[in-house]
Predict the 3D structure of the following.
Amino acid sequence: MATKIKFISRMAFTTVLLLVGIAAQAGELTVTFIGNMAFHITDGKTTLLSDFPYGSGAYGYMEYDMAEVPKVKDGLSLITHFHSDHWNTRLFRDMKHKIIAPPGITKRIEENRVILFSKDTPMRYKDIQVEAIEMPHNLAPEHFSYLVTWHGLRLYFTGDTETPADILKQKGIDIMFVSPWLIRTIERQDLVLDTKHLVMYHQRVGEEVVPYQDYKRMEQGTSFSVEYPED
């Protein structure tokens, strides 16, 4: 049975977002954990949502309350694959922002909300540049990891792939989001990831994961910030 973790109160979240707006003027991305592989990342103007919206509690993973998730006025959902613990079409239709996702997902979305997908050239939404890296994942015919460049910061999202082949090639990553199973694989091989911040995502509540490279294990609704040079 999935364990439901409450977000901090809406009033507290509003306060956080006001502070985010102030901080972003000084050049910060603020990263807030929603659940599973879903993060709300903002510079105070534009928001990136990784693997969100997803089906709350799908496959026994994390639940969340949509009413407690910060609203997105100008933003982008970035989806790795169609599994319901990463994606929900109905919930996305109730939102207003854009999407980058594999074609099997976006064919069901209004065309004016879709950023044309490309495996060969970088995609862009405002200041956010996205490079798609096709990676295998069991029972998912379309699965992509993503390298995001935003205000000069490089963010890497592994998604659910079972192989660390691509992340081991990446250099100079500012924030790398990595699953527990990849952390275990890399730790067993005594390898090092070239990243300033390593964030574990898609762990089950209470799941034990080996210590590795001082990764962040975040509680739902908590945040951290990373500075970037002024544009």
Summary: The helical segments are 10-25, 89-93, 103-106, 180-188. The radius of gyration is 16 Å. The longest strand covers residues 28-35.
